[in-house]
Every structure is written in C-alpha cells, then in structure tokens.
Amino acid sequence: MTQTLLHQILDYANRADPYPIYEELRKTPVHHDADGPYVISTYYEIRSLLHDPRISSDARNLASGNADPLAEPASEQSALPPGFLRLDPPEHDRMRRMTNRHFGPPHSPHRVDQMRPELHDIVGGLIDGIGDPSRIDLVEEFSYPFPVTVICRLLGVPREDEARFHTWADTLAASLDPDPDADPAERDKGASEARMQLGMYLAGLIEERRKNPGDDMLSQLATTKSQDGQMTTMELLSTAALLLIAGHETTVNLITNGMLTLLRNPDVLQRLKTEPRLAVPIVEELLRFEPPVQLLPQRTTLADIEVRGVTIPKGSTLWLILASGNRDPQRFENPDHFDPDRPDIQHLGLGSGIHSCFGAPLARLEAQLALSELARRLDNPRLLDDPPPYRQNAVLRGPRHLRIACDGIRP
User: Fold this and answer.
1) Three-class SS of residue 317?
2) Residue 298: strand, helix, or coil
3) Residues 272-312: pLDDT tens digits?
C-alpha cells in the first residue's frame, strides 16, 4: 500500500490535487515499504522530527542501499560544496550565522523591510508590462520574473546583467522541473553550462566586490570577518547559488498558488481589494493550505528513532510531508477550508527547527505585496484554466502556467 501511495505522490496525474493521497497517508502516520523511505505525514510527528538533532540533512549520512527516489541525480549535482541547507551542525550553524548576519536580526534587522519600496516598484512595473489583459499567463509575466529580480537586487547584481541572470535562472529551474518530452541529455548539458557560467560570473562579481564593496549583500558576505571567520570563495558561490535557487523557486509557487487560491475564493479576493492588511493572514493561510514546498526528502536518521511505536533504523531515509501535516485534522479544524481568519496558524509551510526557511521574511513580504497589488489592480480577474497545468516537480509544487483574464488593469 505504501509503495502505491508513494507512486501516486510522484505521479503527475495527481499533481493538481495531491491532498486525498495525503489524507490516506495519515491513516498510518509512519509508512514504509521494502527499501523505500519512511514517510511521515502527521503534523505533530513532522514538527518533532524537524527539531530532532538525530535527523540529518546531509546526504552523506545515508546508508548504502537506502535509495531516495527524490534524491538529486548525479547529473544535476554541482561542483560547489553543499549549501547550508544540506549541512548539519556545526557546519550548518556556522554558514547560516555568517549568511544571516547580513540578511536579518540581530545584525541586519531592517534589510528586508528597507526593500519594501523597491519591491513595490518591481511589482508595479511587472503589472504595467502585462500585455493582453484578456489572456495573461501570470507565471510567465509576473510570478516568475519577480523573485529573480529581487534576488539580483539583494545580491547586488548590476542592472545591466540582470537579463543574463534571468537566463541562467530559467535554465536551472528547467532542470528542477524536467519536461518529459525533452531530451534529458540536452537538458543536463544546458543545466551544467548554466551552472558553470553562473559560477564564473559570481566568482568575478565576488572578486570585484572584495576590491570595491557596496552596500549589497554579496559585498558584505565577501568582506566581513566575524567570530565564525570569513567565507571562502567556494562557500560564497554555494551560498549565492542557494539564495538564487531556493529563494526563487519557492516564491514563484507561493505567489502563483496564492493567486489561484484567491480566484477560487472570490469572497476573500474581494476583501483583499479593500483590506490590504489582509494580505498578511492570507499569506500565512496560503503557506498552510497550499505550501510551495510539499515535502522534504533526503533526510536521514543518525540513530534508531521511535515514532508512533515504529522504530526507524539508523541510516534510513525520511520523507516529511509538510503539506499533509498542514491538513492534519488533529491540528487544524476544518483543514481543507481556506480561511485567512483562522486563529493559531502554526503551519509547516516554511519548515521549522534549524532548517526553517532562511528567506522567510523576504518571501512573506514578496507574496504580500504581489497578491495585494494584483487584487487591487486587476479588474474582474478570472481563471481561464482550472485546474491549470502543473509543474512536474512533486516537491516544489505549483502551476507551470496560470492563465487568467481581466477586464482591464487599473493604475
């Protein structure tokens, strides 16, 4: 049964609505079959394991023979060292501290909030640039270019180079969400070339910033020394790549899933038009209801661990189904209902524990501004396809296209 359910999770036919599968999974909170992963699907167990130091994010700790069907293929692995997302303490803690020093509290508490005017301008420019209001692809025209532009500004990529950065991001995103009809050899070759070109570009930018630092995040990462030392060029490249990929892909899905959900709930969309502050609870409920990261694969047990009476042996692979935990009726009342007025919304949409989403403050702000401005400026928006075509990726779940129409675009 478990194997069948896992295959259903991975089956593209279920991408538009995986939640009935998660409901079935929750009937047995710890699922396992043969040499496959142990699958955890209930809220309290997932949250506990996210805080458990006996769970490793470092793939090097996986016991031989325990293959993860969602492990990164060798062809997609980088020559760079793993980002801190794929490290355990103490290496993880050191890298995350050095990065966070220039991104958030306590050393840089205002960086994200100070980006608000620039983010607002980017959102406005993208909405202004929408072509035919009777046929809009929200992914292509808005939610995809928005986050990568933001990351360019955050890192300090010169404006004249942003187009090149967008091209590399497009290619790398395609490698995360492969087209089943495309030639895999060509895709892998393109992704490898994009990684190499991006790495060479960033290495040159890092060297330039070390000589002539600015107030951007890359300059500060390249020049600051702290009690944790100073980042090497390879660590800087790894961190910049992590910010690009992880920060971009998740935010695209958050915004697109968000607009899809609002269009399916027109009463909430109408409220947002007149109550812009509602964007804050709307985004929190979206992170519960339609999280951009559905599950966390590639977790490994460092010791025998008992979960709900099941002993998971050391070296086993874990899948933590965040989206299932977020719909667990043992934690959330009426969990399949989208309710921005929901109280006590301690969702798992941004993870929890030491690997909680590093870019959470920026992702939240991007989604709040994007959805509130789309609600304010699009006149009578409506879906042209429901369900829309989804991406292939089962982990980073979101529409590949979101075709909508409106009667016009307000100033």
Assistant:
1) strand
2) strand
3) 999 999 999 999 999 999 999 999 998 999 999 999 999 99
Tell me the two tokens of residue 106.
């306590």
Q: Which residue has the tokens 């007149």?
A: 274
- Rounded to whole angstroms, the Cα distance separating 401 from 385 reads 9
- Beta-bridge mates of residue 30: 40
One-character DSSP codes across 240-261: HHHHHHHHHHHHHHHHHHHHHH
Query: 33 — alpha (psi -120 to 50), left (phi > 0) or beta?
Result: beta
Which of 196, 199, 238, 245 is CA-nearest to residue 221?
238
Number of H helices, E strands in the chain: 16, 12
Provide the whole-model pTM: 0.92
Terminal alpha carbon distance of the chain: 54
* Distance in angstroms (rounded) separating the CA atoms of residues 389 and 378: 22
Token pair in block for residue 175: 């490698």
In angstroms, rounded to a whole number, what is the distance separating the alpha carbons of residues 159 and 165?
10
**Alpha-carbon torsion (17, 20, 23, 29), positive or negative:** negative
CATH fold for the domain made of 2-409: Cytochrome p450 (1.10.630)
**Phi, psi dihedrals of residue 14, rounded to the nearest 5°:** -105, 10
**Local structure of 335: helix, strand or coil:** coil
Residue type, 204: G
List pLDDT tens digits, range 97-155: 988 888 877 777 888 889 999 999 999 999 999 989 999 999 999 999 999 899 999 98
- Give the whole-angstrom CA distance, residue 323 versus residue 14: 14
Token digits for 267?
């009463």
